Amino acid sequence: MQKVDVVVVGGGVAGLTAAIYAAKAGKQTMLIEKQDRLGGRAISNKKKGAYFNLGAHALYTGDAYATFRELGLTLQGKQPTNDAYGIWKGKLNTLPSDMKSLFTTPLLSWKGKMEFASCLTKLIKMDTRRFDQISVREWVEGNLRDPMVRNVFYSLLRAASYVVGPDLPAAGPVLKQLQNALKGVLYLDRGWGELIEELRKKASDLGVRLVTNTKVSSIDTRGGIVRQVICEDGTKIDTQHVVLATSPLIANQLVPFAEETSLHTWKEQAIEITAACLDVALKRLPNPKQQFAYGIDQTVLLTNQSRAAYLSDDGAQVISLIKYQGKETDSDKDLHELEGVLDLMQPGWREELIVKQYLPKITVCHDFMHMKRLENPGPAVPEIQGLYVAGEWASHGEVLVDAATASAKRVIQHMLALEGKEWNAFNEHRGII
Ligand SMILES: Cc1cc2nc3c(=O)[nH]c(=O)nc-3n(C[C@H](O)[C@H](O)[C@H](O)COP(=O)(O)OP(=O)(O)OC[C@H]3O[C@@H](n4cnc5c(N)ncnc54)[C@H](O)[C@@H]3O)c2cc1C
Fold this sequence. Notes:
By secondary structure, this protein is α/β, with parallel strands linked by helices. It has 13 helices and 20 strands.
């Protein structure tokens, strides 16, 4: 029988962050991951000399960036240029990203250009929390008049949230993500796998016991108190604190009588967001001018991440394409559409192809702040003493990986608060930068 203060279930960004902060708080910590490596959805795979994330990944200047900096991670990589195209009626048009492109874009009328510029200027200084209770559509329709400006904003907000329809997402978090995007995003050298490696090392240096290849099968919560973690291989670990850094569905499966707890509400209210992702490594770019495009009347995005990050050992260009998916998905149709976008942006790409990766339907987030949400999940599961949740779905207004790190920190802060201890390093999620 083993005994530790804290067991973290799941070794993605949320689990690693929770384990690091638990160890920093002086807790004996064990992290258990079912896969044979850490990282969850933030891993990278090297194929024929090119580094592929699981779909395009950009680090925004939000909670995760601040957390990783606070932890001393190097985060090597660069900000990409903003020159962007908008795909409208099957054609490429310059998108406004600076004064010059604002004046030259054929997408907007003169009046539309003025409205677009004025809205962006307001957005930069806006307290986005004011819009947490209304949907993206309500915000757009209440603040923008020109139909084409609305279309362009829908496209930018879709890219910030990965959510196709504007009726579901709460506007505040998505506007905050767009605000962060306007400050510039970071593409990481060698992909997000490097970030995971840095987190792994940090956790290991702090004494976290990292266990991979081991699946947790249940948590013993007899009497409404966390007592033990039980793994599929029969291992049992005595503990008083468990952080479930898995999906809401798995969190429910691991806890007996979860239907009598808030875990059930959080699972039932969750709306999963998926995407189809095509990544290609090309020997060279057929058209070096066209490296970044938003779909305006198509729910797609293309970015050449190699324009900012080191993503291949031999100079190959790694381009990522995303098809934002709604409820109905069609793997072949999505691939065809993404290849069509590549044809438009990089005609002749097939002759330059070294290797490709196609993920027809990957979960981008298990849940987010949407208009049908009853409550924000976590940090504690109130019905069971010592049980916590973390993960990008346990968002209290942060988006994607920012929610993963922020929710993880909330857990440890809560744990310490119950012991009457303060955590000075805690940064409130949306007021830090
Ligand atoms: C295509 C795509 C694009 C994205 N783009 C961006 C982006 O541009 N910017 C951004 O900020 N974010 C982006 N994200 C989101 C980001 O990748 C996730 O928010 C983040 O990686 C989630 O981390 P997590 O720890 O919450 O979950 P996960 O990474 O899913 O980790 C959960 C872990 O729990 C483990 N586990 C599950 N069950 C058990 C069990 N029983 N026992 C032990 N272990 C278990 C799993 O194996 C997994 O490793 C993107 C995601 C995708 C898929």
